[in-house]
Write a structure and sequence with these properties.
about 280 residues; transmembrane; transmembrane helix; two-stranded antiparallel sheet; about 55% helix; PFA4/ZDH16/20/ERF2-like; acyltransferase; mainly alpha; Palmitoyltrfase_DHHC
Length: about 280
C-alpha cells in the first residue's frame, strides 16, 4: 500500500516539525501579538492556516504520487538514419539500456538506487518525502516548496511582529526570551533555505530542466566550449512553454498540485529542434 510510505522517520519528523511551527505561530506568536479574539488576529490565523494546509496537502501528494516508472513494454526507437547495419543499431540500443535494471530507458529517465528502478524525468530522490521527484509528482513538489516558503516567511513575520510588540528587558535573560531567539533562528533559517530551493526550482522550470540535467548540462557545455560550439539544453523550448509543460497551460491551476491532466506518458518530450 502507498500508505506504507508514511512509515519513515523523515516523514514523521516533517509532520511533527510542521505541527510545532503551526502551533507556536498561531497560539503563541500571533495570539501574543494581535490576540486570536481580534478580527485582525482571526484573519491572519485563517490565512496562515490556509497556506499551511495547502503545504501539507502538497506534501501528501508528493509522498503518495508515483513519480513514474518505465513501462515494462517500453522499447526505444531503433530507427537510425546514419547507421543502417544491424550491428550499429544493436550498439545504439545498448546505450539506451539501464546497466542496473537491464531495462530500456526513455529520454530523461534515470535509475534511482534507492527506489531500485528507472524514474521518468527524474529530478532527484528526496528522503523527506520518502519518494523520488519525477515526471508525475514534480509539480506537486514544486507547489510544496512554494507553499512551504510562503508559510515559513509568514511565520517569520508574525514572530518578528510579536517580538517587537513585547516590552523586553534587554538585560535580564528569561526562558521566553531564549525561546523567541531560538525559534526565530530556526524559522528565519528555514525561510532562507526554502526560498533558495524555490528559486532553484523556478530556474529549472523556466529552462525545462531537472537537477540531474543541469549538472549533465554543465559538463556538456564545457565540452562544447572546448570545441568552439554553443550548448543549448535540448528540452528548452522557451520560458512560457517550459512552464506550461511543467505546471499546465491554465495559469489559474498552476498552484494546484492535483491539476496534472497536461502530464503525458513521460516517454517523449518536445525538443528545441521542433521549435527552431
Amino acid at each position: 500500500m502507498e500508505l506504507k510510505k508514511f512509515l519513515s522517520i523523515h516523514i514523521l519528523c516533517v509532520l511533527i516539525f510542521v505541527g510545532f511551527i503551526y502551533y507556536i505561530t498561531i497560539f503563541i506568536f500571533l495570539d501574543g501579538w494581535l490576540s486570536l479574539q481580534s478580527s485582525a488576529g482571526s484573519l491572519h490565523a485563517l490565512i496562515f492556516t490556509l497556506v499551511a494546509s495547502l503545504c501539507v496537502f502538497s506534501f501528501f501528494i508528493c509522498v503518495l504520487k508515483d513519480p513514474g516508472g518505465v513501462p515494462s513494454s517500453y522499447l526505444p526507437d531503433v530507427e537510425d538514419h546514419e547507421a543502417s547495419d544491424q550491428e550499429s543499431k544493436r550498439s545504439g540500443l545498448l546505450k539506451k539500456q539501464c546497466d542496473k535494471c537491464s531495462a530500456y530507458k526513455p529520454p530523461r529517465a534515470h535509475h534511482c538506487r534507492v527506489c531500485r528502478r528507472c524514474i521518468l524525468r527524474m529530478d532527484h530522490h528526496c528522503a523527506w518525502i520518502n519518494n523520488c521527484v519525477g515526471h508525475r509528482n514534480y509539480k506537486a513538489f514544486a507547489t510544496l516548496v512554494f507553499y512551504a516558503t510562503i508559510a515559513s516567511i509568514y511565520s517569520s513575520i508574525i514572530l518578528i511582529s510579536s517580538a517587537l510588540h513585547k516590552d523586553w528587558d534587554f538585560v535580564e535573560v528569561t526562558p521566553i526570551k531564549l525561546f523567541y531567539i531560538a525559534t526565530g533562528v530556526v524559522i528565519i533559517s528555514l525561510s532562507l533555505t526554502l526560498g533558495t530551493l524555490l528559486g532553484w526550482h523556478i530556474y529549472l522550470t523556466i529552462h525545462n530542466m531537472t537537477t540531474i540535467e543541469y549538472y549533465e548540462g554543465k559538463r556538456a557545455a564545457w565540452l562544447a566550449s572546448k570545441s568552439g560550439l554553443n550548448y543549448r539544453h535540448l528540452y528548452d523550448v522557451g520560458a512560457y512553454k517550459n512552464i506550461s509543460l511543467v505546471l499546465g497551460p491554465n495559469m489559474l491551476k498552476w498552484l494546484c498540485p492535483t491539476a496534472v491532466s497536461h502530464i503525458k506518458d513521460g516517454l517523449s518530450f518536445p525538443t528545441s529542434r521542433e521549435y527552431s
